[in-house]
Structure formats: structure tokens, C-alpha cells
TrEMBL record:
SUPFAM superfamilies: Ribokinase-like (SSF53613)
NCBIfam families to which the protein is assigned, alphabetical: 1-PFK, pfkB
Enzyme nomenclature, EC number: 2.7.1.56
Domain named Carbohydrate kinase PfkB: residues: 18-290
PANTHER family noted in UniProt: 1-PHOSPHOFRUCTOKINASE, 1-PHOSPHOFRUCTOKINASE-RELATED
UniProt GO molecular function: 1-phosphofructokinase activity
Keywords: ATP-binding, Kinase, Nucleotide-binding, Transferase
Protein name (record): 1-phosphofructokinase
Amino acid sequence: MIVTVTPNPSLDRTYEVPSLERGGVIRATGERMDPGGKGVNVSRAVAAAGRRTVAVLPLGGAPGALVADLLHAQGIEVAPVPVAGATRSNIALAEADGVLTKINAPGPELSAKEQESLLETVRRRSHGADWIACCGSLPRGLAPSWYADLVARAHATGVRIALDTSGPALLEALREGPDVVKPNAEELAGAVGRPLVTVGDAVKAAEELRGLGARTVLASLGADGQLLVGGDGVWYGSARVDAVRSNVGAGDSSLSGFLIAGGTGPEALALAVAHGAAAVQLPGSVMPTPADLDPAAVSVTADVPVDRPLTEPVS
């Protein structure tokens, strides 16, 4: 069972459009409404794989009630923490060529009482969990050290924890030794404070995060695949993708695959890559089911192409 924590969830509306035209009237060719937030997406992907998951998240107002309804409809157990502010609503515009434009609202500010209630709900619902996955940005009111506190509390109860966040919140949490961190290339560059131009640069950055406390680093490099850097080795995974439809939630889907497979070693990386590749070929933030996966399209190797330039280098 995987518990997810999403401190700043959202109600996500995705519109498929031929192309963007600033100042014009754009007619959508398709639309979706989904519960959003990185941890929420992990829960959705875990549920789509037929596994049990509990989503812990602060919810408020009509958007929050709709998020809960949408999650329940997908067979996900919801552990809501009532908050005074309304849950944020986000908009994504997906163009026919795969380019995605996102408008993310800031979300409500959580009071000290609401913050503690969120931590206590995680503690109460994580008994017997295989993993806790803490994902996404922190809402207003939460200090960068909040994730560090959560990691420490999880380890005190003997539960493994995966963390997908960035900036000061990531750096603060590293000192508590999260079992897995899952940055993308931009977040990796930000954490180490230097550009990433090659796959080898990403490997070195991931090793630095391990030096700061992370036990394992699962790094998403977009079209250039994924890296797994841990105490038992370094692996590189990639997959053939026929057509990118939407990359919303693809990294979250990858994390779910990794945790479902046990969260360690090249086999877990292979399932992470398979989940991510399947997700980008689905509309909006639809999460892949086992039928959508193509294991034959996945390649995992310890022969990491360190000299390979990144398709989208991070400066």
C-alpha cells in the first residue's frame, strides 16, 4: 500500500487545442477535468495499476469537494484534511504538436493548526504502508523545513519515504535522508547550482544529492530517459515513444511504477520508464493501466551514456 501526501492539490482542467494564438479565440478539440497535484497523480497511477493507495491532502471549498469526488470515482481512498481556503484550480493547454502551457494557481494558505493536522493524518494513515510518497510544491504557510519534518516522522515509524519536490524544500529534506528523491533535470540543476549539459552531468548532480543525504536518486531527463543512482550502482533507462500527446503527470506515473516495483534496482527503473513512456502517449493527465505499458520498448543498462548531450540542456 502506498500513501501519498499532496500539500497543495488542485482541480486540473486540460484543454486540447490546435495551437495557441495570443489574444484570439481558441476552440478546444477536447477537454478533461482531473484531480491534480503530484502526489494525487501518483495515487491515480497506483490505483490504475490495480494497487491500493491512500491520498492524504488538504481540501477546501467546492473545488476541494470535487477533487475528493473525482478521486473516489477512481477507487482511491481519500484522507482529507479540511482547510478554510479553497483548493486551487489549474488550467493546462495542450497543443497538437505536444507543447503544453500550464497556468497554476497559488492555492490556499494553511494555518499552523491545519499544518499539524496534515502531519497527524499522514502518521495515522501510514500504518502498514510500504511507502509514503510526498510530492509537489508547498502551499503558502508551510516552511521549507516541513518536508524534512515529515521525512523524520516517517522514518521514526519505520516507513520508507519518497520525495518529489524542489528548491529549498528539497535541500532541507535531504538532511533527513529520504529513501528516494525524484528530481527532473531542471530540479537537479537547481539543487546543485550549475548547468546540466550531458547525461554525465546529471549523474554527477545525482551523486551530489546522495552526498547531501538522499539514499537513492531517480532522475527524470525528459526525452533523454531516466537515471537511477543509488548505493548499489548507476543505471540508465530509456523507452521508444511513438508520439507525445501530453506530459502532464508523466513523472508522477514514473514514480508510481518505481515504487510499485519495490523502489530499488534496475527492475524498478524499468517499470518507472515504462510508466512514464505510457503516460506521455495518453491525453491530459490520464494515468496508464497495465494494458498501456510496453515493456519491450524499454531499455535499462549499467553502461550509462555519460557523454550524450541532453536534448534540452538546463542552464
